[in-house]
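Q: What does the predicted 3D structure of Diaminopimelate decarboxylase look like?
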Amino acid sequence: PIPTLRPGPDGLQIEDVPLAAIAERFGTPIYVYSRQALEQAFDAYRHALAGRRALVCYAVKANSNLGVLAMFAKLGAGFDIVSGGELSRVLAAGGDPGKVVFSGVGKSGAEMREALAAGIRCFNVESEAELERLDMLAGELGTRAPIALRVNPDVDPKTHPYISTGLKNNKFGVAFDTALALYRRAAGMANVRISGIACHIGSQLLDSGPIAEAAEKVLGLVDELAAEGIHLDHIDLGGGLGIRYRDEAPPSVAAYLAPLLRLLDGRSEELCFEPGRSLIGNAGLLLTRVEYLKPGAERNFAIVDAAMNDLARPALYDAYHEAVAVAPRDVPECNYEIVGPICESGDFLAHDRPLAVAAGDLVALLSAGAYGMAMSSNYNTRPRAAEVIVDGPRTHLVRQRETVESLYALESPLP
Ligand code: LLP
């Protein structure tokens, strides 16, 4: 799944750096990202969209490390944010606020003010109440808020229920049938400027059928609006393209976009996307060390130093991440439950995986670049992992390992 991971004389290496050297120098658990893999993923979007008015807004939630954001900023990406915190990160990483779109159903007044002050590209508005608040706050600041309505096209993305967002019983977006009326209202508001339309139907999509269906609906609405004199400048079709974790066969970026680009041919609106996973998921892995092997009557456990606090996806979604020994031993493979030290049975990283390892060996959990570190926690007072970016022969530490003291630095006993 990771294009720049390959075997070398010292076991697996990412680009030119052996994973063993990274573990030696920075310790484990550690997230390792490949600059080349990230750039390749971004280039796939760039090529597929070449010659069009288009903006790729990286979904910051997938991985918000400043080093990662700075690389995307340098590549010319825009950003899809869902909080004031993510906006701060984008600005700190040198991102262009003029290329930021702000999604999310619960934007606070403070977050709206920050985004207005920064001069973001667009608010993807998800309800009438939000639109009213935004109009009021923009008025107070003497500015006009650029908006798109995020419409809910009510199509089934055929993905995990926790990450499908475009069905009408989801909390996301404005119900499709009410969007026209809400645009009319927005058109009459003094402090908003209608800029576009947005939709996002779900994540880890493995074919473009559902998004093409959504796009058709959205374009129908765009034309209805135009007939009323409401002209949109951009169409944002969200993120969602899936990646290969195991044996999935997601379309290439070009194949995913092809039916959408066909629908959009000859139109003048700028085309926006908000990909997260497909840009960073297979550019990263979680490197962990085996603490103990624990043979059992029915199952053998490989207890590693990473846990569900570091990578929550297996526990949360029963997600599959390939697990590979960094330097497999010359012993027969044995099937292991790969588990962490946390006191919960849900603390597993992988089930029933063949590994030829001994205690002390390194194991890499692949395809962990997206929604890995970003969803990590300090459960069990575990300092979060360090993060590095490999660039050819060089390794850059882009997040230090947390110290235990920092975890309770904001706390105090009663006086
Ligand atoms: N835009 C919006 C409005 C979103 O809600 C999301 C993801 C994206 C873009 C980016 O979607 P992507 O291209 O990454 O599929 N934690 C889950 C994934 C949650 C996705 C939430 N929204 C996981 O680990 O699978």
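A (community wiki): The structure tokens above were generated from the sequence. The chain is about 30% helix and 25% strand. The chain has a mean pLDDT of 96.
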